Amino acid sequence: MAKEIKTIGVMTSGGDAPGMNAAIRAVVRTALARGLKVKGIKKGYQGLLNEEIMDMEARSVSEIIQRGGTILGTARCLEFKTPEGQKKGADICRKCGIDGMVVIGGDGSYRGAQALSRNGINTIGLPGTIDLDIACTDYTIGFDTAVNTAMSAIDKVKDTSSSHERCSIIEVMGRHAGYIALWCGVANGAEDILIPEKYDFNEQSIINNIIANRKKGKTHHIIINAEGIGHSTSMARRIEAATGIETRATILGYMQRGGSPTAKDRYYASIMGAYAVDILLQGKTNRVVGYKRGEFTDFDIESALNMEKSIDEYQFEVAQIL
C-alpha cells in the first residue's frame, strides 16, 4: 500500500483558521522530503471539482508560516455533498495522479475526506477550526490564535468600559461551541460567561448580578457572549433599560479568524501536517489526525464524527467561581 502513494494533494476547506498555512507548509515539505510529488488544490472541494490544481515545490510554501488565512483559499461546496460530486472529485484526483489527499478543515471537511476515501483516494483529515469543537482532539488548528486575538480585544474594551462605568457585552465566535467564550471569560476576568452548552436564558440573573456588583462599587461589568447565543445588541438594550447602567455591545466577528498565528498554532499545525503525510505512507486512509493526552495520534473519521464533545464541568465551575 505504501508504494502506491506517489503524489499527495493538499487542500483547505470550510472556515479559514490561523495556522492552516503552517500545516500546508509541513505537508508539502515533508512529502517532498519523502520523495513524493505534491499538488495544491485551491478553494477546497469546489476547486477540486473545477480542477484548480497546481504543482507545489519547497519554494511554493516559503514565507507563509507567519501568515493567517490559507494560501490555497477555501470555499463551501454543495455539489461535493452529492454522490455524483464525490465520485467526480475522486476521478479528478486519479486523472491528476493524486493517490493520497490531506484535507485541513472541520467536521464538514471530514465528511468530504471520508467520501474521497470511499471512492478510492487515501485521505487524511487535519483539524482546522478556531472553535475547538472536534471531539477526538484536545487541540484544533487556529484556536490558540483566535482566543488570544479575542482576549487582546476584550482587554481594550474592558479599559474603556471601566472608564465610562459601563456594562459591556462582548460577542465572540462559536456558533455551536463555547470554548472561545469560556477561555476568554476566564482569561479576561469576565463577570458573566454565556455559552450555548450552558446558557439557561435567564437574563434576570445577569441583571441581578450587574446590580449587585454595582452596589459593591464595581465600575464595570463584562459579559462574554458566544455567537451561538448572539443577539448582543438587543440584550444590551434590555439590560440598560432594566439596570439604568449604560450598556454597549461589541461583536468581534471575523477578526478572530485572521492574524499571524501563535507559536503554538504554528508548531502543532506543522507536526500535524508532517504526521498526516507519514500515516498516508503507512497505507492509512479515512483517518483524522488529533492531539490527545499530550500525544499526536489518529482516529477513524467515522468514529471521530460520532464522538460528542461537551464543556468540562469542572472548568465551567471554576469559570463561574472566578
Feature tags:
322 residues, alpha/beta, 7-stranded mixed sheet, 4-stranded parallel sheet, 11 helices, 42% helix
Q: What would your notes on this structure say?
A:
A hairpin with a 2-residue loop joins strand 10 (287-292) and strand 11. A 7-stranded mixed sheet has the order 3-2-1-4-5-10-11, with helices on both faces. Strands 7-8-6-9 form a 4-stranded parallel sheet, with helices on both faces. It is built from 11 helices and 11 strands. Helix 1 (20-33) runs parallel beside helix 9 and helix 7 crosses helix 8. The longest helix is centred in the middle third of the chain and has 21 residues, at 143-163. It has 322 residues and is an alpha/beta fold. The mean pLDDT is 94. It has helices at 20-33, 44-49, 83-95, 107-118, 143-163, 179-187, 203-215, 232-243, 263-281, 301-306, 313-321; strands at 7-12, 37-41, 53-56, 100-105, 122-127, 167-172, 192-194, 221-226, 247-251, 287-292, 295-300.
